[in-house]
Amino acid sequence: MRDAYIIGAGQTPFGSMPDRSYRSLFLTAFERAVESVPHGIDEDEIDEAVIGSLGVGGRQLGLSGPAATEHLGLHGIPSSRIENACAASGYSVRQAVQAVKSGMADVALAGGVEVMTDMSGDMTKYWLGVSGETEWERLTGTTFAGVYAQMASAYLDRYDATREHLSMVAVKNHANGAKNPNAHLGFECSLDDAMSAPDVAHPLNLYHCCPTSDGAAAVLVASEDVVDEYTEEPVRVAGVGASSERVGLFQREEYTTIASSRRAGETAYDRAGLGASDIDFAEVHDCFAIAELLAYEDLGFCDPGGAPQLLDDGVTDLDGDLPVNASGGLKSKGHPIGATGAGQIAEAFKQLRGKAGERQVEDPTYGLTHNVGGSGGAAVVHILEREVGR
Amino acid sequence: MRDAYIIGAGQTPFGSMPDRSYRSLFLTAFERAVESVPHGIDEDEIDEAVIGSLGVGGRQLGLSGPAATEHLGLHGIPSSRIENACAASGYSVRQAVQAVKSGMADVALAGGVEVMTDMSGDMTKYWLGVSGETEWERLTGTTFAGVYAQMASAYLDRYDATREHLSMVAVKNHANGAKNPNAHLGFECSLDDAMSAPDVAHPLNLYHCCPTSDGAAAVLVASEDVVDEYTEEPVRVAGVGASSERVGLFQREEYTTIASSRRAGETAYDRAGLGASDIDFAEVHDCFAIAELLAYEDLGFCDPGGAPQLLDDGVTDLDGDLPVNASGGLKSKGHPIGATGAGQIAEAFKQLRGKAGERQVEDPTYGLTHNVGGSGGAAVVHILEREVGR
After folding, report:
1. Is B49 in a helix, a strand, or coil?
2. Strand partners, B357
3. Contact flag B85-A62 (C-beta cutoff 8 Å)
4. Mean pLDDT in runs of 10 for chain B (390 residues)?
5. B67/A132 touch (CB, cutoff 8 Å), yes or no
6. Under an 8 A CB cutoff, do A78 and B1 touch?
7. Residues near B1 by Cβ (< 8 Å), separated by ≥ 6?
8. Interface contact A244-B55, CB threshold 8 A
9. Chain A residue nearest residue B373, CA to CA
C-alpha cells in the first residue's frame, strides 16, 4: 500500500483560553498547519477530515466534525469526529493515514480540539470522568488521578523507585516547556518545588499531574503520489500502531504496565522495520508522572523497572541520548484532551524539520509519539521519519 | 487498492429497551453478525473496530469504543468511537472499508449503538439537540422536527406536492416494517391515520416523524485477500461516498435538497461505475417523511420535484421497480441514532443474500444505503453488490 507523509502540522498555544470557541481554536491550528506546508496548499486539495475531540462541555457534541470543517472553509468533504478520550487525535492522525493508504484520499486533515476551562471544576470533573470506566470506577468516585495513583503505588512498591523519580519527570518536562512558546505552564520548577507540592492522590502530588488546558492541533497527511507537490522535506509515517485494553484498571492483570501502549509500540516498530534503539526522540503521554515512567518501559526504551535509572542518568533529558517530551509534555505544554495526540505529532514534525528552536533535539531522523486514552483503554504510537534528499 | 467485502452483518431488534446497556445491545448485534458469516469467524481474526455512537445519556462518553469491544471479548485491537450524529455508523462502515483498503486490517468490525429510552423526555431532547447547530439553532429553541418542518414547508411550496405525499411515506414504511420482526413500530397504518395524527411541527405530524429507539447493529468488513475464507456469497462494497454540508439550515442556499446527500451519492455512483438506474433497492434516511422525498431526488431516483410522482406511481413500494425502505425505514423500523447507518447496511446485506423473508425484494444485485447526520451536516452512501459465482 502506498506511503503516507506529513506535509504540514501546527497547533495553537495550549493554555487557559475560556473565551475561545472550539471552532476558533481549530481554525488557528489549521492555519498554522497550512502555513507550514513549504509549497502551500489550497483548501480544495484537502479530500477528507477527521477531528478528535471528547466534546468536553457538550455544546456541539454531535456533528462537531462538519461544524469545525465548515468554519475552516472546507465545504462538502467527508468530515467526522473520532473519540477515544485523551487519544482521540492520535487516532485521528492514524485514521487520516488509513484514508490516504486506502486510496480514498490524497490529502487528509487530522487534528483535535478541546475547550475545558470555560466551566466549573465540578463540570470539568464530570467531563473527565466520563472517560473512566463508568460503572465501576467513575460512579464509585474514582478520579483519573486516583487511577494513576494506584499505578504509581504499585510501581513504587514493585521496583527500586521513589517519589523523587516522579518529581524528576516534572522538573525535566517543565525545563523543556520553558523553552516552548506554546506551553501552558511554560516555567521551570525545582526538584524541591516538585517534591513539596500538595498531594492530589497519594503518591501523586500537584507537580505529578498535568493541567487542564484548552487548545487545538492540526496535521496534514498526504499520499506518496502527491507529496512532491507540497514539499521537498516531507516527514514519512514510517509506522503506526494502535491497541486497546480493558478500560477499568481493576480488570487488568498488572498495574505497572499499560498493555495497550506496549502492543501499539510493538506494531509501530514492526511496521516501520525499526526497534526502540533507532528512535532519536519521543513525545510520550505523561498525563501523570508515573505514566512517563511506564511509557519508557512499554515502548522498549528500557526493561521493566528500568525507568528510574534512565531518569537518574539523564538519558531522556533534552541533551540526553533519547530526549523525551522536548515539548514539555502534557505536564508543562498542557493537555487539551482531544488536541494532545495531534499536538505531539505537530511537535515531532517541527523537531524533524529542525525548527524547534531552543528545545531542538540534535539532528533527529526518527521521532516517536505515544498517545494514551484514559488510563490505557486506548493507545496509539506513530513513528515519523525525516526523509533526506527526496 | 484492494476491494472490501461485507462478510457478515446483524442487528438487535430496534425498540424501547431501557433496561439494556449499550454494551449488552452491541454484543447482541455482534453475535448476530458473527452468526451470519457462512464459514464462521474467530474473534482473533478481527483486526480492528470502530463503533458509531452519539453517546446519548453521556454515561460512557469517553472510550466507549474500547469499552464495547472488551465486552465482546475482542482484546487489544485498535478500537475507537466515531461520531457524526445520526450518520455515525454509516461513517463507521466507511472507516472499516478504509482500514481494509489501506492494508492495515484484513477484517474490520464496524457498527453502532444507542440507548435513548432510559431517560426523561427533556434529556432526550437535549441529547438530540446537541447534533443541531448549537449556537444559532439549538440555543434559539429549534428542534430537529422544526428544522425538517422548514424543509417540508419549502418543498410543499415549491413543488406540486401535498401533505398526503408525506403521509404516503409513513403508510409505505409501516407496511414494510410490519413484515420486519426487528422493527420498533412494526404495525401498519392507513392513510387516514397518517393524515389525522397530531401536529409535531407543522406541516409534519406524528406519523411524519420517526420514533426514539434503542438498538445496535454490527457489520464485518473483509479484504479481497481473505474474503474466500469466510464466504462464497460475499457482498462487495462497490462504492462509498461521503460528504458534509453547513450544519445550520439557515446557512444553506436551498432548503429543498440536502447537498451532502447529493455529493455522497455522486461519489458512490462514480466509484462503483454505476448510475441511479442500476440500483435495485435502497434504504434511505427517512428521519422525517420529507427526508425520504428529498433522498429520492438527491440520490438521482428522479429529478428535483419528482418525488411525489414516484410515490403516486408506487415505484418505491415493496413490489415497485425500486423498493425504498423495505425494512420499514427509520419511521417504522426505528432510529437508534448511532446504530441506524450500520442497521441499513445489515438490511441491505440480508436483502442481497435473499434472506429478508416477507419483505424480500425481488432478486437484487445492487442495493444502496443512505445515512444522514442531523439535518444533512453529514451524509454517507454505500452501494453494495451481490457477487454471483465468486
Report:
1. strand
2. none
3. yes
4. 96 97 96 98 97 90 94 97 98 98 98 95 86 82 93 98 98 98 98 98 98 97 98 96 96 96 98 98 98 98 98 98 98 98 98 98 98 97 88
5. no
6. no
7. A1, A102, A103, A104, B101, B102
8. no
9. A63
Q: Chain A: nearest CA to B292, how far in angstroms?
A: 21
| Set B285, B335, B370, B382: catalytic member | B335
How many whole angstroms separate alpha carbon B279 and alpha carbon B296?
12
Domains of chain B, CATH where assigned: 4-119+217-235 (3.40.47.10), 133-209+238-386 (3.40.47.10)
Q: How many CB atoms lie within 10 A of CB B303?
A: 10
Alpha carbon separation from A346 to A9, A34, A319, B334 (Å, rounded) = 5, 12, 21, 43
Per-residue model confidence as pLDDT tens digits over A7-54: 999 999 999 999 999 999 999 999 999 999 999 999 999 999 999 999
Q: How many Å apart are CA A2 and CA A50, to the nearest integer?
A: 20
Closest A-chain CA to B79 = A244
What phi-psi label fits residue A112: left (phi over 0), alpha (psi between -120 and 50 degrees) or beta?
beta
Nearest to A98 among B67, B85, B102 (CB): B102
The residue type at B4: A
Q: Determine whether the interchain pair A134/B380 forms a contact, defined as Cβ–Cβ distance below 8 Å.
A: no
**Residue A265 contacts residue A300 (beta carbons within 8 Å):** yes
- Known catalytic membership, residue A208: no
Which candidate from B61, B63, B244 shows the least CB-CB separation from A69? B244
Point out the residue among A78, A85, A102 whose CB comes nearest to the CB of B1.
Answer: A102
- Residue B205 and residue B217: Cα distance in Å, rounded? 28
Residue in B closest to A262 by C-alpha: B76
H or E element that contains A98:
helix A88-101
Q: What is the residue whose three cell numbers read 420499514?
A: B328
Only one residue has cell 453475535, namely B31
| Strands B4-11, A79-83: pairing kind | unpaired
The Cα–Cα gap between B279 and B59 comes to: 40
Residues of A in contact with B340 (CB under 8 A): none
Say if the ipTM goes beyond 0.95: yes
